User: Fold this.
Amino acid sequence: MDNDVFLNTGRRVVLREAQALHMLADALDDSFAQAVGVLLAASGRVIVSGMGKSGHIARKIAATLASTGTPAHFVHPAEASHGDLGMMAQGDAALVLSNSGETPELADLVAYTRRFGIPLIGVAGNANSTLLKQCDVRMVLPAAQEACDTGIVPTTSTAMSLALGDALAIALMEHRRFTPEHFRQFHPGGKLGARLSRVGDLMHDNLPMVPADTAMSETLLVMSQCGYGVVGVCEGSGALVGIVTDGDLRRHMDGLLDKTAEAVMTANPRTIGPDALAEEAVALMNERRITCLFVVDPAHSRNAVGILHVHDCLRAGVG
Assistant:
């Protein structure tokens, strides 16, 4: 096996596709803005379609649109001719991909959009193709060399189509001011969902809390029963004023049981709000070398509303 040959081939392919993406960026014109406008104006869904490799790219574009706030789904052009055209309706917009612009399987879908006044955006590599001549918005891919030396394998052309779909999705997302919280609603599972979890989603509401004048004998009992290795200390209004940790116990071992929680506590502990990202809480705990954070409601004079342990975050996949 000639590893150098394989490595050189890999680098050539990546560089050709990277060059094609630069060409695409330079080639973007008013048609891109027009396409975004059409998709924003659609009161229904974005129908994304393509055949073969373009179909695979179209599926991904539809998924990206749907997960970033633009309702979308993929319609297979061959299936469309056998009943799936019913998945399209007035109020929708169609985004159709075909590198040649001459894919015969797209004919019925294109005709359907023309018959029922569904806006049609076409993406193709030939400005004079049958597809683009029928479209309301024409997006032409630059004439970039495919990554293979034979020029027959869809590689740079599909890479450009995919990048163009991502660009449309991000432009729509930013216009709609799509937030991480919106994103989490569409991605509740997996690592991404975990990273976007809020502290309020993971915290416990059975709080280990004692008044400031509580004897340490009782404070230790509360601390042991809750199992967090910490107890919060509150003043008369209920606001969190301090915490008692294992470290505080060691520092006050001499005459510990004769003291009150207020005498032993660490005052003004670090806290976090329920709307903060759990990832932020983990970073704070790592920075302070602590394992728990009390969660406070800033609108109510630092009243504790929960407690978050680092293990809660780790179990949820945050960390």
About this structure: The chain is about 45% helix and 15% strand.
